[in-house]
Amino acid sequence: MAKVYNWQLGREMDYRFDNGNAKWQFAAVFNTNRCIACQTCTMACKTTWTFSPGQELMWWNNVETKPYGGYPQNWDVKVLDLQEKANPGGQVWDRSVPLTTRAPYGTFDGKTVFETADGLTKMVTGYTPTQEEWKAPNIHEDSATKFPKDGVQLPVHDGWFFYLQRICNHCTYPACLAACPRNAIYKREEDGIVLIDQGRCRGYRKCVDACPYKKSMYRPNTRTSEKCIGCFPRVEGSDPLTEGLPMETRCMTACIGKIRLQGLAKVDDAGLWVEDPTNPLYFLVHVEKVALPLYPQFGTQPNVYYIPPRWVPRDYLKQMFGPGVDHAIERYSNPSRELLAVLQLFRASQTIVFSFKIEKGPKIQELSLNGVVHEIYDDVVVGYDSQGREVVRVGVEEKVFERPQQFTMNTI
Amino acid sequence: MKMPAMVRRRMPTLLVLALVLATAGILQLTNANPAASQSLMLISRAASSDPGLDPNAAVWNESASIDVPLTAQQQAYPIGGGSIATISAKSLHRDGNLYVRVEWTDATQDDSTLKVENFSDAVALEFPASASATVPSICMGQVGAGVNIWQWRADSQVGHGDPSERYPNLWVERYPGDGPEFYTARAAGNPYALADGGPVQDLVAASFGNIGPAGSQTVQGQGVYQAGKWAVVFARPLNPGDASLTAFHETGTTDLAFAVWDGSLSERNGQKSVSAFVRIHIFPGDAGGSATPAWLIALGLLVGLSGLGVGLAVIGTRSGAK
Ligand code: SF4
Ligand code: SF4
Ligand code: SF4
Question: Does the first or last residue of chain B, that is N or C, have fewer Cβ atoms within 10 Å of its Cβ?
């Protein structure tokens, strides 16, 4: 076991290998507040990568309704339960430490999925979901906890559900990789994308057992495991469509609700994100801290970050996204001028935005919400590609266009 | 010089240990293998008719079997196994081919890996890849002393079915294609993923996590499950004509180890029941035609003596510890 630094936990932890760090890290921010569960992302991935015999039950991208839904069923409850049994009462955070980029959410005092395993029979605490559990990817869709007679209102709804969008987290310390006795899984240095070498895999399914997010999946007719490949031909710019420029993945660019933004974060030798407040991902995760990792306590340092849903009971959200939830919801509910501008970048461009600038605009509104005065400015956010060329320019105020008279009939 | 009290008390033990070490040294020098399970020798005689691949072929009655004890694999992650206590083995040869028949008790017939939670019953034979002086580490060999592994798998014998073959009511509107490019592992040249790979894989390894397909696949095999037991026959030319694979010689002796996986216990990879190395000796000529040669008796005696030495050492250690 090597010692590695997990900044999401604010501490060192045990990991099987010490070379978990990529130079760049694939990362994304998903805004759960905006998702409409249309599953366009799910179908974009399915029709690109998993439409062949043997992949019928495989959904590298899925959107599930929380708290009851899950693909595979109850995956998160089961892993949380295993961890709790391994360390009863000990899975807690210490928030008394200074909150820096080395420990933005405090320090996790509990044990990770690596630290509860014995290292002999298992490298990672996990379980293998049965085929039955993979069969109903959208089970409990839109099921709320209850339907209060008097309706619901913010800040927290009494009856609630929300959509959780899930892909492989291309973890900094992948559990799948640590569990593979054949070393058939690797993490790419150039973008941190985690891949299963289909030539080496011998179908031991240790990765399926180990991945706490259950994003490594078994294919019975090749007897190998397959997983989300981070659409690497797009991310590396080798897909002809990209014209050589890093492009966001299929599930990101297809998003109808404009909830997704994906890119690459530069990583230093110690495994921390290089400070760059002009990178939209760095800005959202480290400057505003409005987007949080999914189940950071598992310890894999996952790289999809979620803006938590505003209406959901905080205890539930803190278990899911860690102790940064209150701060994140406060930031999202009362956004700074910069945050409001950067949120406009979601789905504004297919080309990956590596940096942004904000051009200040005039004040367009002033409104009072819960006693707080909000001033809205029509700032313009400009996004730049990997070469520093402008690829997109969006204002905070959504433009309204009126169609000429002759198009008003029979058109959408 | 005064000896420390503890050393004085353990003198008898130390002497016995020294004797055992010396015996082991002699065994090594005479090219006998101390890693081998010491009293077990599988004799391969010439068969009177072609054994083929059928484990129930009558010709197997010409061969005496040995029972090889198995234990859990404890050397490397993931450890496990140990559920199967013994495997019995027989061997014959004919027309330049070596045949090995193994049989073990397993209450469940696990021959499908269609579901993610299904694992296959399997058995493997392991030989040193070359007649090198160094005995390879029993588990997966070591650098410079690789091993040649023949693995038979129950699921591969049944075949690689698409789910639609097993679930007749499965309905999919349209698969865009079914060329190898749509089966990624096959397109990547993974022999294990091939639809028509057969039940036996010829593998080579020089360390843990480093097992891979042999350059040529010349091992054949077939298994049957009957009365709560698997019986499997392996067949291969004595000399496969490939330097990376074990070549057998008539009148030759080499090491052989066994591994068994029980699919119903989710055993795979390192989770397996394994044996120590035993010896396999190939006799020329007809079955039953040769008596045990004098050198073999001498070796047996030497092995027996060293066994006595180990026994004494254990007793000595126990009394010393009191
Ligand atoms: S496409 Fe976007 S809005 Fe639709 S389900 Fe997927 S993440 Fe949600
Ligand atoms: S989410 Fe699972 S499959 Fe993806 S990198 Fe992390 S551990 Fe591996
Ligand atoms: S990144 Fe690509 S491969 Fe991964 S879930 Fe999204 S579309 Fe599928």
Answer: N
